[in-house]
Amino acid sequence: FNNRSATVFWSIVSIAALATLPSYDFRSYWYAGESATDAICDDHHGYQVEFVSQQPLLIHIQNFVSPSEAAYFTSILAQNYTHKLYVDEEDVKKKVAPRLAVLNQHDDFVKCILNRAQRFLGSMGSPDFELLSLARYSVPHQVRLHSDASQEPFMDSKTKRRYNRKTSFFVYIHASDDLEGGETIFPRIPYPLDMGLTANSGIVSIQNTSGVPALAVKPVSRSAVFWVGVKKDGTVDFDTIHEGLPLTKGEKIGMNIWAKHYID
What is a single molecular function from GO for this protein (predicted)? Predict the structure, then answer.
């Protein structure tokens, strides 16, 4: 987005009426230039956002990445990328959770995604992001209930500044046609009563452990979910705790995008 678009975007967020769950079409535009990155960034494919929850703020984004970007990130998982353990080391050892492939931050496609995320954030943006990573989820991978934001701030190893994950993007780079399971559930966010007003097939209702219909996001290729996980007072919004439900068939490829929101 340009500055004007960012202003309009967040104005819409602040006045969005969940009773009607409106959808808006946005197109992001790359700044004029002649670099290799400009040539490969497909920022004119357009994406659609839908406000699913106002408090906490949660937005579903259809077509966040282009077909060419999705194909590229899917292909590089077969290459020799650096891997690190995911949320719980024991889960990885038991093959319950996947490993992450850490991406080269100088890669042109990575720069495209970070630039798009930065523009989406607008005035909520940050100059720095954590390393982008990909994970291939297959049966029976899952991710346990957790919060992306932390009660104890993270430390930037380079700047020595403290930061938190105020905002989160989870991008479904690819979901196989035979996929079953693998939804991202937010058990503390109620499923919107009037979701019937939308044709968005990416938002579904799944009962939480209390038997209450909770909001869940279905893996749909090239889509993403965005949320704000830190309150205005700087504390973690535990209503955004979430988990990746087990896959029972097929596979999905996910990408985490975390901006470094500095505290000091």
Answer: L-ascorbic acid binding
